[in-house]
Prior knowledge:
single chain; Alpha-Beta Plaits; elongated; 2 helices; alpha+beta
Amino acid sequence: MVIGVCTAILMIPGSASLKDKRRAVKSLKDRLRREFNLSVAEVGDLELWQRAELGLAVVANDPSFCDQVLAKAVDLVRRDRDVELLDYHTELR
Length: 93
């Protein structure tokens, strides 16, 4: 069994409140879950309006599959118009 984990640091430039941030993050999390069937949670920067840290995880038998799913998920985050991807880190366990 292989576990793929990705931590993504996001900037939410259009956010003027925690409510705006939660709307943008929830929308992104829902899309990631729906399109890639992976686990997503906001794991850091919970009280900041314009920053978020997401944790993504996928489990599979094949390490290359985990890597592909996380790479596609990062591409989706990059293309999202409500957030900017500042940094990310991926690892397989």
